[in-house]
Design a protein that fits this description.
Strand order of the largest sheet: 6-7-8-3-9-10
Largest sheet: 6 strands, mixed
Mean pLDDT: 78
CATH class of the largest domain: Mainly Alpha
Order of helices and strands: HHHHHHHHHHHEEEHEEHEHHHHEHEEEHH
Number of domains: 3
CATH architecture of the largest domain: Up-down Bundle
Structural class: alpha/beta
């Protein structure tokens, strides 16, 4: 009969083998040798007890040991038996040390490999999968569930060790008295059947704890990310209520799990005492054995029972972390099935133009781009404008290869994006967003993206700061380029953060820089600085400016006007402005922008 708990044991052996490799079976072998040493050492207690008896009155096992001593030239004496016992237990100690060292090595490697592997999976996942996945879930995997997997592995190793020792102890007991051993084995199977119900409950609770962890992480991310808004509007109460309910549910699940775990732990000693008492009664009163002859069997059964009940307890603790193992396993499967697909052709250098030809795109069943045709020549500045919902952001996502069109072709230098290695495409692209991407580090690290500093790198940082109009305010900072700007650049103004973000893209020296509503949330003075930065780059790089504020794109070589997902007008500023009844002119008048204004 196949006991389900052992089916699970083998299943998770295969799971952990993927990370541990040959070290896992090697660990089992070393544990086996350690267990055999202990078993042999304990068995030597019988010859020790019979050392002063005549050869004819001792049991078969003791006779075998004494014959073995004579064979190797050792006398039948107390000293000889003690020397062997000490040697065997020293050998066992060596095996236990090796076992612990292997276990520590596997655990540290498991933690490292899981973290690095998941970071790589995050990097490789498709953008569409990312936007449809809860950020709390992604954060929970790498901050909470990995630790749960490590805890699960620790408990699993303890389970394996207990299984190996149980097999060794019962084998030794079987050798000394097979009838009683089979009876006890039957009793143990009954205990397993009873306690298996607890394991199922704990496994269910473990999965629930993992899901609640993800929900709590998501809530905390929002709590911290929108702190300023929540603080300013006293909006903590509704969010706190949601978090409170999730934390209470999490507490209940953890509490139930711990209480159920305590049931087998609290019954181990009582059950062991009852079974050992029964063994002594059977051995002495029914089988007419002396207590001395029963001691060794009693020791093995005591060791076996301790390991059996410890196995059950450890297994249930393993089940409390099994949710983390399953969450990570399923997440990796999802990441692999939603990996970004790209071609093999590498883009070494942007040489000619980007072209969108008859491009259509749908979000689900809703079409957002209709038959879009756009050409972006190298070193031209191209403006893409339109009202909210016109499809500007979708167009950006396509230009960077984050999403693919439902139909039509996007190409660069006549290479279809489908055939292109998208990593090499993006290495040629700089990107400045509406909400500046800055990091809680120094200004120089934000600009250089942590490139190792030398004289050339420092000069390059300073040059990028000058071109982005950042140099003046950087010099006013307490520690100049080494000033730490705080989380999301909180120590800087919005315009200063944006100029740091532009400096980073200039530092990268990409062929193409995309500005996605880069000035929409800035004041007029900050916008002027950003516009000067853009003008400094004109003619040297391909600039794609996606904007709603028309002043940003006034000096562009080509302007495309989007309306309801279609390109409805194109030309330069003068051409579009001087076209009567054009959508572009109407937008200019709404924003009080005239042909006479110049931001150059």
């Amino acid at each position: 009969m196949r006991i389900p708990i052992f089916g699970s044991l083998f299943r998770y052996y295969n799971v952990f083998y993927l990370y541990a490799g040959y070290r896992l079976p090697f660990l089992c072998i070393i544990t086996l040798f350690g267990g055999l040493c202990e078993s042999i050492g304990l068995s030597m207690m019988l010859p020790l007890l019979n050392i002063d008896k005549s050869f004819d009155s001792i049991d078969t096992y003791t006779k075998f040991i004494f014959d073995a001593l004579n064979f190797v030239g050792m006398s039948k004496s107390l000293n000889s038996v003690l020397i062997i016992i000490v040697f065997i237990f020293c050998l066992k100690g060596a095996f236990i040390f090796i076992q612990s060292a292997i276990e520590a090595n596997i655990k540290s490697d498991l933690l490292k490999e899981l973290r690095l592997n998941l970071i790589k999976k995050y990097e490789a996942m498709s953008y569409s999968f990312y936007i449809n996945t809860n950020l709390g879930f992604l954060n929970n995997i790498i901050t909470q569930e990995i630790d749960r997997v490590l805890s699960a592995f620790t408990k699993y190793i303890q389970v394996l060790i207990n299984v190996i020792y149980i097999v060794i102890y019962l084998s030794a007991a079987f050798f000394f008295n097979w009838k009683i051993t089979l009876t006890i084995l039957f009793v143990c199977i009954i205990f397993f059947a009873v306690f298996r119900r607890f394991s199922k409950i704990i496994t269910f609770l473990s999965h629930n704890v993992s899901l609640l962890n993800a929900s709590i992480q998501g809530g905390l991310i929002q709590f911290i990310s929108y702190f300023k808004y929540l603080k300013a509007t006293s909006g903590f109460i509704p969010l706190y209520s949601q978090l409170n309910q999730m934390i209470v549910d999490h507490k209940k699940a953890v509490n139930k799990s711990l209480i159920i775990n305590a049931i087998p732990t609290s019954t181990i000693e009582a059950l062991t005492s009852i079974i050992l008492a029964v063994i002594i009664i059977v051995q002495v009163n029914i089988m007419d054995r002396s207590i001395a002859d029963s001691i060794l069997l009693l020791i093995f059964f005591h060791k076996s029972f301790s390991r059996v009940f410890r196995f059950q307890s450890v297994w249930q603790h393993f089940c409390t972390y099994i949710g983390g193992v399953e969450v990570i396993r399923k997440a990796i499967e999802n990441f692999d099935s939603n990996k970004e697909q790209c071609g093999k052709i590498k883009l070494e250098k942007f040489k000619q133009q980007i072209e969108l030809k008859s491009v259509n795109f749908l979000y689900g069943s809703k079409q957002v781009l209709f038959d879009v045709n756009i050409i972006i020549p190298k070193n031209y500045s191209v403006g893409i404008i339109g009202e909210s919902g016109a499809g500007k952001t979708t167009l950006f996502d396509m230009l960077t290869g984050l999403i693919s069109p439902a139909s039509g072709i996007i190409s660069i230098d006549n290479i279809d994006y489908k055939d292109l290695n998208l990593i090499t495409l993006r290495q040629n692209i700089g990107y400045v967003t509406q909400e500046p991407v800055v990091f809680n580090d120094t200004i120089e690290n934000n600009i250089s993206f942590w490139e190792k500093k030398d004289k050339n790198v420092i000069k390059k940082i300073e040059k990028a700061a000058i071109l982005s109009k950042s140099e003046s305010f950087i010099q006013e900072c307490p520690e100049k380029y080494k000033t730490i700007i705080g989380d999301r650049g909180i120590k800087l103004s919005g315009g200063q953060r944006q100029r740091i973000a532009i400096a980073r893209e200039i530092y990268k020296e990409p062929d193409i820089i995309i500005f996605d509503e880069a000035t929409s949330s800035l004041d007029t003075e900050s916008e002027k600085y950003i516009q000067e930065s853009i003008n400094n780059m004109k003619g040297n790089r391909t600039l794609i400016i996606i904007a709603h504020r028309l002043s940003t794109i006034k000096n562009c070589d080509i302007i495309y006007v989007l309306s309801k997902g279609r390109v409805v007008e194109q030309g330069n500023f003068k051409q579009l402005y001087n076209t009567s009844n054009s959508i572009f002119k109407k937008m200019c008048l709404e924003q009080q922008l005239t042909d006479s204004e110049n931001y150059g």
